[in-house]
Structure prediction request, 165 residues.
Amino acid sequence: MKKVLDALVKVEAVLAAAILVILIACTFFGVLARYLFNSPFTWEEEVQVACMVWITFLAAPVAFHTKSHVAIEILVDAFPQKVQRVIEVLIMILMYAILIYFFFRSLEFISVLARTGRKTPILMAPYSVIYGVAPVSIILMLISYTYETVKKVFLTPAQNEKEEA
Prediction:
């Protein structure tokens, strides 16, 4: 399972990096067009916004999987071991609740965008496609978090180390 998750995370990271290259190139050529040729691209901002949305939602599961997100562990570490375990379980429950809540809210948001047929003004790209990456991202975070939760709850520290190797 770890190999599958690692491969999935690698694909997400590569895709986010490719979109970042597109964003940088679009911005670079947009600046050139505007200031050197005095002919700005009218569609540039729409592409940039779409790229930023996709980069954000593709990179979030990567950060989640690699534990690169911000965590304040000093508070938990101040408690005795048994209390730390209880806090960890409460955090797990809270994380699931938050991810599931955001998943359903993002589906509602995409549904409204699709139903109303909202599109970007210049490229006429459907907003539902631009923001459609959000629920996918949340599902990937849920999968990754479930894997980590199962490891934490059912495996001993020695088994966890073996799994990581």
